[in-house]
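Task: sequence design from structure.
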């Protein structure tokens, strides 16, 4: 290939990953939560209610849909940030991902 350049990603900013994935899953969670409540779909399973007993006291409606979206976004942001930190650790030991790009 002509004029190709190899790029290596050596680290990922965990805060940037948190904002990106947390924001995406916040919006997805809001859609799931609000449409789930409009269509009367039970989005809170019995396992979630056992872990978080206060959730059982939340009345179904818009507030529950918004709470679901916020919890969904925060959890996704935290998990993706942990994966970014793991990537940074292993990239320092083994090297990062390499990409070839044309100029």
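Answer:
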């Amino acid at each position: 290939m002509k004029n190709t350049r190899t790029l290596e990603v050596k680290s990922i900013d965990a805060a940037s990953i948190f904002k990106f994935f947390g924001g995406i899953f916040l919006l997805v969670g809001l859609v799931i939560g609000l449409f789930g409540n409009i269509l009367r779909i039970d989005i809170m399973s019995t396992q979630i209610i056992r872990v978080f007993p206060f959730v059982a006291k939340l009345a179904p409606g818009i507030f529950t849909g918004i709470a679901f979206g916020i919890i969904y976004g925060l959890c996704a942001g935290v998990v993706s940030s942990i994966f970014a930190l793991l990537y940074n650790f292993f990239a320092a030991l083994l090297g990062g991902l390499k990409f070839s790009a044309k100029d």
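The longest strand covers residues 4-9.
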